[in-house]
Amino acid sequence: MDTNTLFDNTEVAFALKNDSQLERAYFLFKMISHEPLVRIGTAATNFALKAKLPVEGLIRSTVFDHFCGGVNEEDCLPVIDKMYTKGVSSVLDYSVEGKEEESTFDEARDKIIKIIKFADEKEAMPIVVFKPTGFGRFYLYQKKGEGQIFTQEEHEEWNRIVDRFDMVCQLAKEKDVEVLIDGEESWMQDAADELCEDMMRKYNIEKPIVYNTLQTYRWDRLEYLKAIHERAKKGNFKVGFKIVRGAYMEKERNRAEEKGYKSPICETKEITDENFNTCMRYILNNLADISLFIGTHNEESCYIAMDLMRDLGIDKKDNNVWFGQLYGMSDHISFNLAKHGYNVAKYVPFGPVKDVMPYLIRRAEENTSVAGQTSRELNLLKQEKKRRRL
Fold first, then answer.
1. Backbone phi, then psi, for 236, in 5-degree steps?
2. Which of 328, 294, 367 is nearest to 79 (CA)?
3. pLDDT (tens digit, 9 = 90+) per residue, 16-33?
4. Which of 257, 276, 258 is nearest to 266 (CA)?
5. pLDDT grade, residue 1 (50/70/90)?
6. Which of 17, 28, 129, 263 gets the highest tally of CB atoms within 10 A of its CB?
7. Tell me: the pLDDT tens digits for 296-351?
8. How many CA atoms are closer than 13 Å to the CA of 113, on its beta-carbon side?
9. How far apart are CA 261 and CA 307, in angstroms?
10. Distance between CA 278 and CA 199 in Å, rounded?
11. What's the rounded Cα separation, in Å, for the pair 340 and 342?
C-alpha cells in the first residue's frame, strides 16, 4: 500500500461514528468553516452562559459531545473503551482554564492524581496531562522566569507549585503512567521549562516518565532541545518531549510588538513546519536519550515520522514514540495510524460544560484560522457519507 494515501481511508477513520454522529460532525465542520458564524456563535454562547440561559443541553448535544469525552472521568469511559477497540489510547485532559486561587490549584492537582490512579487501572490510558498554570499563578512563573526576586509570600507560593508538580510526577513514576506537561506563553515558559527539567532529573532515571512540551513555532526551540539533551547526557537522566506547533501565536506576536522585543514566533508557517520536522528528526535520531510524543494534525509530518522510523529501524510499537491528535479532529490520521500498528493517543478533554467552553471556543477559532484543516475534514466526511450512501 502507498503510505502516502494512508490517511484517505474514511471507512477506518470514521468506523466508530454511526450515521447520525457522522451527519453531526459534517454539520459542525461546515459551521466552523464560516468565520463570521464562528464569531457570532462564540459571542452568543458566551452571552447565554453568562446570562445563565438554559443552553447547556444544546451545547452538550452538539459541539461539546463532538470535541469532549464528558463532564467527568467516569463519563469519559464509554469514549475511552470504544476508541481502544480500534487501538487508539486516551489522554484525559481536564480542560478547565483560567482559575487563579490556591484552592483551585490544589483541586487541579487532586484531579490529576485521581486521573493517574484511574489510568493505572486502564490499559487504554497510558498517559496523563496537565498545564503548568493549572498548578500555579501565571504571574509567578513569569516573575521567576524573568529572574525577579520573590517576596516571602511568593516564595512560599512557588514552593507549593513545586510540591504539586512533585506529587504528581512521583505518583506517575510509582504507577508507571507518563505525564505530559503542556507548553504555554513564552514569557512564563522559562520557569516552567526549568521545573519540568528538575522533574525529569528526579524521575526520568530508568526511562522517561515526565515529558515537557516543545512549541516549535518558536524559532529558539531546536537550540533548547539540543542544550537539554547535552545536560541529560551529563546528568544521566532521560528526556521526554511532546512536540507541537503551538497555540498562542497571535498573543505572542502582539505582545512582542507592544513591548518592542523580537517576536519568538517563526516568521512563516513554512518555517514553523520545517522547525517542527527538524526537532522531530533530531529526537528520532536520539531515541536512546529522548522519547517523543508527536502532537500533530499535519499529515506531512506524520509521513516524515513514519518514513524515518522505518529507515532507522524503529519498531512501530516502540513506547518511545507516540502520535497524538485531539478528540473530535483528524480521525483519519489517528485511526489509520492505529490500524497500521503505531502508538496513537487522542487528547480527550473533559469537565463541566460551562468551564470547558473557553477550550471549545479556542478549538473553533483555531479550526477557522487553519482553513486547509477544516476543508480536509469536510471532504473526508463527505466522502464517507457518499460511501455509506447517506
1. 55, 45
2. 328
3. 999 999 999 999 898 888
4. 276
5. very low
6. 129
7. 999 999 999 999 999 999 999 999 999 999 999 999 999 999 999 999 999 999 99
8. 15
9. 39
10. 25
11. 6
